[in-house]
Structure formats: structure tokens, C-alpha cells
Amino acid sequence: MKGQTGYIMKPMMLIAVIILLIFLLQTLYSGVAKERLAQKNLDIVSTGTNVLLILANSEDCLAYESSVTQKAQGIILDIQKLDEFDVYNDNMEPECARNYEFGWRVDVEQIGQGGAIENNWDFGAKEFSDGVALNNEIRLWIPVAIKYPEGHHNCPEGCTELGKMSIKLVNGELENLAGFFDWGCRMGQLGRMSSFSTELKISQPVKYKPTQNELCIGRSCRSLICHLLYFDEGLTSEGTYELTVNYQGPNKLLVGK
Amino acid sequence: MKGSSVLSENILTGLSIVISFILMFLVVRLVLSQQSERTYKNLFESIARDIVLIIDREASMTGSEKSEYRIPEGIHLNEIRIDYKSVFVTYEEGTIRKFFSGVLNSGPYTFNDPRVLCFVKSDQVIRISPLECDNVNIN
Fold first, then answer.
1. pLDDT in the model for residue A3
2. Which of A126, A175, B101, B130 can pair with B114 through a Cys bridge, CB separation 3.0 to 4.6 Å?
3. How far apart are CA A196 and CA A256, in angstroms?
């Protein structure tokens, strides 16, 4: 009987130890995954909040500058700047609040008596990563005031109206790749650095449309600042790519894979 | 002696215990080294993230503002480079890059193993210096 028990117990012990080890490893790695998710969430929430506050409070963006104090008034948007952003930034984020890791689109609504929307403006990227290319997205909003100067056709005597500024902020493969090209282009234009490298993971083929100067992943496309050279075939298969860009002024980027 | 086993049951048991311990030691060492590498990298990512948050907070403020950031004690950085919308933290094993949303309207800045950084915003310009903010004038 003794021999028989040992014969059964030894493999049982082995299986128990293996299960214990797998459990320990799984606990450790799930902890790491949770930590990464928390970091990603923290990044997207803080970036979304900061972009909204920069848009509302920075003179470079939408903040109304008092003609008396020559200072920006917090959370009061200048109607003239809003109109300009609406016209000139219809498919790309304005540079004053752009983050090259994220894509975003902002919608500003003027709310009248009884909660009706009286006017609205929107600007920023039109399309975003979706499906497997999407990493994270968030929607946030803040209350704002919209300042009409005297003589404006909507409010000739000058007035301040109630508004709501909402943002859709997205991080994905399209935003990362287009952000890297656009940032490299800006750095080249500023004369800071002319060559950059990065490693990017792509889970769908990437297409480049030279005539429209657009980068597309799946059904979503983004306009680029610089034209890409030697990238006409894009990235034909999924995988991790080491990309290098060289700035060739005035607005061309040489891409190496 | 013909038919008798070369290895007795006791030797086999001993060997299996030794091999089990070696295997467990290797697994634990692998896991721990991976964890410590990740923790080390996270530390520098946190520094880059803190700098990004400070710059964006300053950029989103109206008027003048001063903020001080002290690098955690005992951390050795090779270099911090703050350039157009980007922060690079270089340490012994690599470089971390993070982007911020605001505009500095100054720079670029490169600091070798700084202990403290002072961020000053005035007249829509954010200036950065490797000094305590008490020693930096706002204008």
C-alpha cells in the first residue's frame, strides 16, 4: 500500500507545484497589466483635462484677452479666435494645444436660455484610430464663457454667453504614427533636430496617400504637416517597425524603415 | 549484478529535488529581475510624466506662475532634455520620451543630472532652470 501511495502522491505533488507556480506568475503579470492600464488611464485623463484648460486659458489658444488689463481671462473664450479655429483647424489640432501622442476634436456649444444650443464651433482631427488600432479614448467637458466684443453682429452691444467645451481624445496607432511624423516635421522646421527614430507597433497595414498627404490605418485617415518621401507603399503588414525620419526642408520628411 | 539499476531510488529522489530547486530558483530570479527592470524604467517614466504635467499645468494658467520639481533622492539621471512639446529623460539603460500639449515659447533646455528644476511662466513664456525657485526671479 505504501509503495502505491508514493506512486500516486509524487505526480500529484508535481502537478500541485506546477499549478502553484503558474498561479504565482499569473498573479504577478496581471498586476503589471493592471498597473500599465492605470498609467494609460492617468495619461489620457490628465492630457484631456490639460488640453481643455490650455485651450480655455492660454492667449495662444482661445482665451479672451482683456483690452484693459492686457491679460487673459480664465475660461472666457474669444469669439474671434473661436471663429478662426473653426475655419483653419477643421482637420488638424491647433498647434497651441496639440499633443503628438494623442488626437483630439473639440466641440464648443453656446447655450442659450432654456438650455438650447444657439451656436457651435468644432475643430481638431476628424478621424481617429478604431478597432484593433485603438488603444484608449475619453470624452470630457468643461463649462466656459464666450465673449462677444462690442459691434459683433450676433451681439452688437457686446456680451458674455454661457458655453460648454467638450473634447474627444484618442490614443491609437494612427495618432502615434502621424504624431511622430508631424513632430519630426515641426522639429525640422524649427531647426532643432533633423533626424529621429522610433519603434512603433502596427496591427493593420498603413497606407500613405501622397496626393492628399494623408496617412490611413483601416478606414481612418489623418492629414500630415510634411510630405513623406520613400513611404508611398506605407507599411504593408502588421508588426513592430523601427522608423527613422530625416527632415528635408521646407516641408519634406525622408522616411527609412 | 546483472539487472540491478545503476541509480537507486534515493539518488533519483535527491536528483529530482535538486533539479526542482534549480528550476524554481531560475524562475524566481527571472521574474524578480523582470520586475526590478520594470520598476527601474517606471521610475524614469514617472519623472518624465511629472515634468509633462508641470509644463501643461503652467501652460494652462493665466498670469504668472512658479513651480519647483525635485528629482527623487538617490536617482541618477544622465540628462533631461526639454524641447518642442517633448521631454527626454536619459538614464543608463535608455531614454524615455513623453509629449506635452502646451507651448514653452522658449528653449530647448538640456540639464545634466539635475537635482531640482524650476518652471517659471510669465508673459506666455515658460522658462526652466536647474535651480530652486527661491533663487529664480519671476520676470
1. 56
2. B130
3. 10
- ipTM beyond 0.90? no
Residues A52-65 as b/e (b if ≥16 CB within 10 A, e otherwise) read: bbbbbbbbbbbbbb
Determine the pLDDT at residue A192: 82
The answer to whether the Cα torsion of A144, A147, A152, A155 is positive or negative is positive
A59 → chain B, closest CA residue: B124
B115 min Cα distance to partner chain A (Å): 25
* Contact list, B60 vs chain A (CB under 8 Å): 50, 53-54, 56-58
B96 phi and psi angles, rounded to 5 deg:
-105, 135
Contact A166, A106 (CB under 8 A): yes
Residues of chain B with pLDDT below 70 are 1-7, 138-139
Helix (H) or strand (E) holding A117: strand A117-124
How many Cα atoms sit within 13 Å of B89 on the Cβ side? Answer: 21
> For residues B22 and B90, is the Cβ–Cβ distance under 8 A?
no
The C-alpha cell of A157 is what?
452691444
- Phi, psi for A73 (deg, rounded to 5): -105, 120
Residue B53, pLDDT score: 93
Closest residue, chain A, to B85 (C-alpha) = A99
Measured between alpha carbons, how far is A220 from A218 in angstroms, rounded to an integer?
6
CB contact under 8 A, A21 and B60: no
